[in-house]
Amino acid sequence: MAHVQDATAPVAYPLSRALLEAVLADRVSDRFVCELIWPRLGYEQDGSGTWSAGPAAAALWLESFPIEPQFIAQRPPSVALTRAIAREHKQLLKEQLGFGGYTIAELYPRRTRRATAVNWLLAHLAALAEPLADSGPLPTLLAVPADPVVGHPGDLPVS
How many CA atoms lie within 13 A of 48 on its CB side? Predict the structure, then answer.
């Protein structure tokens, strides 16, 4: 179902293959990953920088996660995001990005939740019949964290 963004809604950061690959490679903060999703789910920033479910948010998100769900740090929002991916879009990570998954040594909740986030973003584009650009704007890319369990400075602890 198409979503018309009103003039007061935040503009979502443009998605591209390069950006999504940077997410999978753990080159952006967990918060940045969430900020790719929140406006697409209908969350809006208040004056303090907190994202709250706005009028465009679906009932599930508004009721279960009225304030910015932490898709990487917390399991329940990640599970809800997984369940929000339509069956026909479950393989987009593999089909569009050629992502075969992480190796056993790379399997950490932060990384698997990033894969979920990217798959949801791909499914969101597919549901809107929007193509994924090959390139686009990128934030300043971070070094891969020395400790993938802890993540980048400022990332919330994973539960």
Answer: 4
